[in-house]
């Protein structure tokens, strides 16, 4: 059958934008090389024109330079056209890449949307509310258990709180009486010195005149005033 009807030839895929841009860039590089060669030739003719005198020889050199200049202008036009084609291909490639990126983004969004819908089916608002209510009930039961375990076994149940408050007020009043006289404790106040001496078993201070120094009698000491001078009799002061 293949020999009779032959084999169908497969069509070659059309060139891509990148392939077309690469081909045009290569053509542009070839044109640039030709323009550089023509520039070198023009410079050589310019030097010859400067060196030759006006006449037929100089005119012949000028005609050859004009021919090279026309070729250069033609190649420059082709190069500009190729650059414009490359620019257009680059714009098309940029737009194509943008569309591909948009397609990939849409595909990713669709996949994520499908996954979210599947996850939402397993999570319900009512289930979350029920779970929160159960957690609150468990926390209340836990607090009751802690309060029950924290009860004291030594405190009798028949104690009146009002009596306890009265005793507390009485203690505060006693403490206030003990700390009078600008906050000085009662055991440091002056009217308690005798009780303190009795508690410490200290002898009381002697009442009367102090003992006379050695070599002096008590009569002599009593006859002197506070400065150690002889005391003046009261009769002389009255006279």
UniProtKB/TrEMBL annotation:
User: Any idea which UniProt keywords this protein has?
Assistant: Coiled coil
Which Gene Ontology terms describe the biological processes this protein takes part in?
late endosome to vacuole transport via multivesicular body sorting pathway; vesicle budding from membrane
Q: Where is the composition biased (Basic and acidic residues)?
A: 20-30, 190-200
Q: Which residues form a coiled coil?
A: 99-148
Q: Which residues cross the membrane?
A: none
User: Do the record's keywords include Cell wall biogenesis/degradation?
Assistant: no
Show the Pfam families listed in the entry.
Snf7 (PF03357)
Q: Which GO terms describe its cellular component?
A: multivesicular body
> Region labeled Disordered — which residues?
1-30, 180-239
Which family is it part of? Belongs to the SNF7 family.
Q: Know the name of this protein?
A: Vacuolar protein sorting-associated protein 60.1-like isoform X1
The organism's taxonomy opens as:
Eukaryota, Viridiplantae, Streptophyta, Embryophyta, Tracheophyta
Gene name, please? Answer: LOC110771223
């Amino acid at each position: 059958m293949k020999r009779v009807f032959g084999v169908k030839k497969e069509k070659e895929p059309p060139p891509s934008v990148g392939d077309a841009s690469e081909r045009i860039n290569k053509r542009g590089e070839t044109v640039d090389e030709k323009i550089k060669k023509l520039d070198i030739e023009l410079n050589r003719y310019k030097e010859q024109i400067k060196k030759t005198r006006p006449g037929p020889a100089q005119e012949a050199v000028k005609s050859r330079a004009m021919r090279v200049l026309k070729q250069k202008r033609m190649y420059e036009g082709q190069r500009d056209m190729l650059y414009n084609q490359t620019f257009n291909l680059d714009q098309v490639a940029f737009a194509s890449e943008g569309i591909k990126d948009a397609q990939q983004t849409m595909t990713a969004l669709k996949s994520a949307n499908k996954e979210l819908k599947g996850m939402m089916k397993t999570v319900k608002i009512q289930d979350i509310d029920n779970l929160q209510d159960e957690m609150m009930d468990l926390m209340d039961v836990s607090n009751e258990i802690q309060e029950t375990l924290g009860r004291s076994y030594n405190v009798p149940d028949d104690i009146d709180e009002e009596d306890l408050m009265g005793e507390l007020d009485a203690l505060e009043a006693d403490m206030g009486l003990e700390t009078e006289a600008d906050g000085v404790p009662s055991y440091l106040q002056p009217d308690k010195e005798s009780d303190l001496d009795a508690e410490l078993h200290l002898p009381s201070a002697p009442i009367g005149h102090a003992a006379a120094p050695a070599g002096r009698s008590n009569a002599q000491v009593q006859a002197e005033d506070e400065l150690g001078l002889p005391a003046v009799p009261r009769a002389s002061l009255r006279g």
